[in-house]
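hiii so um. not sure if this is the right channel but i have a protein structure encoded as tokens and i wanna go backwards to a sequence. like what aa goes where. can anyone help
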């Protein structure tokens, strides 16, 4: 699959839902991740990202408007040693806890399935970045129903060794708006160009998300040689 323009890929979809971008900066020096959430309901839009240790968590912007925390309050990002875990749900904790017990990313996710939010059956999307001895690789996963059939789970895993500079892989929950919402299809989309500058990347993603539906964005750049990182968080609710 040929890479596509990240800005056009984001702006061309009014409701990709929740999305993960993993990749390598154009100069080849930084491991890059971006995670965003969107919402159509009052409950989904009533969220912000806040720092939690080396990761982040979601919380209600206005606690009085929180009607159901079960699928919207979770830790999207956690760090386990030299691994950064990014997901769209509480499977972040599953991956963290089971990998800490020497299970693999894929084995941990075999204990989970898509979200129980009929009729959408929102996919669980997950990513992991591994940096060691100046080398970087990452993987992505999607757990989804088989064309809306909740009796069947499709488990698709994608691993990327020696990623190309300036290229990211973009995985999101929905292929577009609808009722029910249609699940993402195919392999993660290769997107270009991943900037060298974290603020440029943050603006690139945030500015091209649908203005009505975007809620929060997390971006992190990790120096592959030193492991030092920079983080940006953008919340629509302020």
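sure thing!! here u go:
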């Amino acid at each position: 699959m040929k890479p596509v323009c990240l800005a056009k890929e984001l702006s061309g979809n009014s409701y990709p839902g929740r999305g993960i971008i993993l990749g390598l900066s154009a100069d080849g020096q930084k491991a890059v991740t971006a995670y965003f959430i969107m919402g159509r309901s009052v409950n989904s839009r009533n969220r912000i990202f806040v720092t939690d240790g080396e990761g982040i968590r979601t919380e209600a912007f206005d606690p009085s408007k929180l009607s159901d925390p079960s699928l919207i309050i979770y830790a999207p990002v956690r760090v386990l040693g030299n691994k950064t875990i990014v997901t769209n749900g509480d499977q972040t904790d599953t991956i963290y806890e089971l990998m800490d017990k020497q299970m693999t990313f894929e084995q941990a996710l075999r204990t989970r399935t898509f979200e129980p939010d009929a009729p959408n059956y929102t996919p669980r999307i997950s990513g992991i970045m591994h940096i060691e001895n100046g080398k970087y690789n990452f993987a992505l996963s999607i757990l989804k129903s088989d064309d809306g059939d909740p009796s069947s789970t499709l488990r698709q895993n994608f691993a990327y060794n020696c990623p190309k500079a300036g290229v990211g892989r973009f995985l999101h929950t929905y292929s577009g708006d609808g009722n029910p919402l249609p699940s993402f299809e195919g392999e993660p989309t290769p997107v270009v160009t991943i900037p060298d500058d974290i603020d440029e990347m943050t603006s690139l993603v945030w500015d091209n998300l649908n203005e009505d539906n975007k809620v929060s964005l997390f971006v992190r750049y990790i120096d592959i040689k030193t492991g030092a990182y920079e983080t940006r968080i953008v919340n629509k609710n302020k």
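oh and Residues 98 and 108 are 6 Å apart (CA to CA).
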